[in-house]
Amino acid sequence: MVPLDKLTRSQTYSRRRDLVRLFWTACVLVFVISMISCPQVVFQGALTGLKTWWNIVFPALLPFFIASELLMNFGVVHFMGVLLEPVMRPLFNVPGAGSFVMAIGYTSGYPIGSMVTARLRSEGLCSRVEAERLMSFTNNSSPLFMLVAVAVGMFNNPGIGVLIAGAHYLSNLVLGFILRYYARTEGERFPNRGMRRGLLRSALSRMLQVQREENRPVGKIMGDAVRNAVTNLLNIGGFIILFAVIIQLLFHVGFINTLAGILGIFLLPLGFSPEILPALGSGFFEMTIGSKLASEAAAPLLQQVVAIGMILAWSGLSVHAQAASMIAETDIRMLPFVVSRLAHTCLAGIFTYLLCRWKLPLEELTAPALAASGWQYPGYAGNLKMLLIFFISLAAVILFALLLNLARSILGSFFKIRL
């Protein structure tokens, strides 16, 4: 016989789920009615989202998605997991395989960090809590977007891109150090086997083991990697187009201005100009559109740059939805990711402000910026360079781990002799 209190809790949970589903049903009905009422607005929004996906997201992420799939299949991530355990564990309290997520997350952009983290979790290379830590501080804006699209295309000032990217990465690394204390008692640990034989030997043995277990031919592995990458990018493109349409509809009905007014309650006392608030309201939903509006706002350059730094750190509900779709088949929770985005937004705003006051002259900060007439994304050539940087970063991290392990071995032997 089922206890009464347990039955009551089950009924309460079921009712809550029903209410949530009814809420989303109502939202979908409102969205459909709005589409029927404003077809021109919907078309313009969809066209904007499609251009953003095809011209920016698809060429930016496709090489990294394919590379990450191949590196997982050939055991390189498992190799790094064993090799970099002594580095990643004390710094961020995540397994060594998290170094691969960091390398690809910091060189490619949203939402590939979530995708690779979900893959690590499904492969059993990290616990749920460790996956939540990883996903929370390895999702970054693309360096090409910050250094080229924003700095050169929107502001016609390459130096601004360095400030925005520096604050963006620095605040996320600080967030990673803080998150090492998140749920320390909950996360089970996945020890690396064979550590006594030496790090490098154990790492090579683990990689060879994965390759022996892979029965598919090389052509099949490459074909599956390309297919999975394109499928994930189509999924991401759907979210971008959907949220572009939603933003256009919200602009049309005046909701973005209402949201800007709500944000003004908190930001106007901090000195933000009212002209920058609509950009922040748009960036709440989609970061590319919000960044573009911030660069065109009639506000001082300092406020424009800080606003873009905050928008890129928050990343927009569009990216949140993409991340949620990537981890949908795992037990990773979204709440830590959303909370960490809020923390990243605050830290990025503070660090961007401090770096701008330190590097840029006062007269340039207080004057409105002259945005470029049109900005272009560098496309395939620029992203091939970033892919090269990604592999160089991987090699540098592995070399650092080897040198660190060698130094520890030498020091350990020295002190043993002295003893």
Features of this protein?
single chain; 419 residues; mainly alpha; 19 helices
Characterise the protein shown here.
- By secondary structure, the protein is mainly alpha-helical.
- It has one domain (38-418).
- Helices cover 78% and strands 0% of the residues.
- It contains 19 helices and no strands.
- It has helices spanning 4-37, 39-73, 76-83, 85-92, 98-107, 112-122, 128-137, 143-154, 158-179, 199-213, 218-253, 255-267, 277-283, 287-296, 301-314, 316-326, 335-359, 362-366, 379-418.
- Helix 11 (218-253) packs antiparallel against helix 16.
- The longest helix has 40 residues, at 379-418.
- The radius of gyration is 23 Å and the shape is globular.
- The N and C termini lie far apart (66 Å).
- The model is unreliable at 192-196 (pLDDT under 50).
